[in-house]
Structure prediction request, 546 residues.
Amino acid sequence: MNGEISLNLATTGQQWGFGEAVDGCLRHGITAISPWRDQIEAIGIEEAANIVRSNGLRVSGVCRGGMFPAETALGRQANIDDNLRAIDQAAALDADCLVLVVGGLPGSSKDLPGARGMVADGIAAMLPHARASGVRIAIEPLHPMYAADRACVNTIDQALDICASLDESVGVAIDVYHVWWDPRLAEAIARAGRMNRIFAHHICDWLVPTTDMLLDRGMMGDGVIDLPAIRAMIETAGYHGPQEVEIFSRDNWWQRPGDEVLDVIKERVATVC
Amino acid sequence: MNGEISLNLATTGQQWGFGEAVDGCLRHGITAISPWRDQIEAIGIEEAANIVRSNGLRVSGVCRGGMFPAETALGRQANIDDNLRAIDQAAALDADCLVLVVGGLPGSSKDLPGARGMVADGIAAMLPHARASGVRIAIEPLHPMYAADRACVNTIDQALDICASLDESVGVAIDVYHVWWDPRLAEAIARAGRMNRIFAHHICDWLVPTTDMLLDRGMMGDGVIDLPAIRAMIETAGYHGPQEVEIFSRDNWWQRPGDEVLDVIKERVATVC
Prediction:
């Protein structure tokens, strides 16, 4: 199994900015990262690209594009325009992909199929610029508990149905936190492999109990997800890239020194992933 | 559309016991209820059955059986035995069905497929007694956010796959809170109709934001679920029974007088469901 780690910079986002996180990764022998756009913009895209290049880093993804639905055509176009800027940032960092959190219900709408249509339309609209820029787009299905307010694409199969209507520059980011419960998980990952659409693999863990729907993700091994089983499905499906560690943990891991967090991540990836 | 209401007695469970809730329902012209086993046991099954019969009430369901997975064969048998007692209670009340919350991962297990196998085995084991007692069994798929600790059956399709291997005394309880996000919702409800397996329809609403994963359900109309659309799917699929109102709401509806809650329920069912 490929034990390569990528650090999603949200994991240490409360402790470290872009440059500090890269320094921390290098101290720990981690040579892949996945930054968020606010972290990139805080230092500027040229400086971010310079740090990536000069250290020979792999950028496993840029977080995030998406958020397509809006109540008006003007709003939807503004969202697409923002995604075009995100493509430029991903291109400047030579990222493996731009990760999409696609957005939920716009305004006071209860029309989930309608929102899903806006997502498919938005991705199609950004695709020409992505292709021209050499940037792959990774739809990240989010857990169904985020369907209303964050992402109305909630299963790998649903994301693949969108992919199937587009070309191979659109794929999926598989985050165990969002998909581990899916009764069709094995079949869906195999299908993604056959379609050659697995662009990223994010890991963390599902805690029992979970005390916050957004900011209580667990460190690998502290929860109930069978991480080795899911990694085996993903590698069997043909993806051998890094496991990207993305942990939103307001009350635990965000309170610890970044170096301690990286120590634990390395130990857990080596033993329980 | 059938505007018949059933009151799931959890909705007023902090204000009213079994008898008080029935009195409240009758004051408001509601003639169907769905009690929980602890509420039945608090007054005894004979008294509960007498209240139901003497008032000509419909019992749209008894909550709940299930909770099959356990780490040992002895534990699993104890869980099956408890389900046999639940069948007797449902039979005594002439309930439309016994609702199953099937249970999650047993102990420290991370084996979700294994837990799902225990659920299928448990349902099969209770079925002869259910058939002999004339009690139908309704598997309630729970929202994926409960996969670890409450129910590892998380979609209507998954529940129907279990049903398909058994006879027509096993069906599904469709609670909008648990299934509204499902990209396959329309297809799954239609499939349930073709299989003649829709035994119950529960309603409430999904609030944005949701502040508690268990006890922050919304009153119909206060959230994002397109209730008329889902009811139309269910009636088209052939189910015309009551809409059972089940709202766990620690900080809002459980704090209000039961009569106020019933007033609002009636108004909302008439206007937004």
User: Anything to note?
Assistant: Residues 64 and 99 of chain A are 5 Å apart (CA to CA). The mean pLDDT of chain A is 98. The domain at 5-272 of chain A is CATH 3.20.20.150 (TIM Barrel).
